[in-house]
Design brief:
mainly beta, 0% helix, globular, 124 residues, seven-stranded mixed beta sheet
Length: 124
């Protein structure tokens, strides 16, 4: 059974940093789509960033230059480093993975597997 577990969320002041982790179990695909998306109350889901199956990274305009995705294949864990956080980054953050999707055409929030999310709150 595939399980994705996010961690690392919390409350920070604007300008601060957080690193989110997404640990996978029961999932052995090494070349796949992996993404992060977020959703704030009353707002649409928003893709934040994703890796495609070649390892190429893509970022939403709203986070480019501030957020960085990375991976540790030995630990089967993916990360989202978030720097210079802004109040508008406040949301629940989810990681997703999919072994067969067209990574760059399908939004990451539609990938096959997702975690339960971790809350990020940024105060001004």
């Amino acid at each position: 059974q595939v399980r994705l577990v996010e961690s690392g969320g919390g409350s920070v002041q604007a300008g601060g940093s957080l690193r989110l982790s997404c640990a996978a179990s029961g999932y052995t695909f090494s070349s796949d789509c992996m993404g992060w998306f977020r959703q704030a109350p009353g707002k649409e889901r928003e893709e934040v960033a994703h890796f495609d199956s070649t390892g190429r990274m893509s970022y939403a305009d709203s986070v480019r230059g501030r957020f960085t995705i990375s991976k540790d294949s030995r630990k089967n864990t993916r990360y989202l480093q978030m720097n210079n956080l802004k109040p508008e980054d406040t949301a629940m953050y989810y990681c997703t993975r999919d072994p067969t999707a067209d990574c760059n055409r399908l939004p990451s929030y539609d990938y096959r597997y997702r975690g339960k999310g971790t809350q990020v709150t940024v105060s001004s």
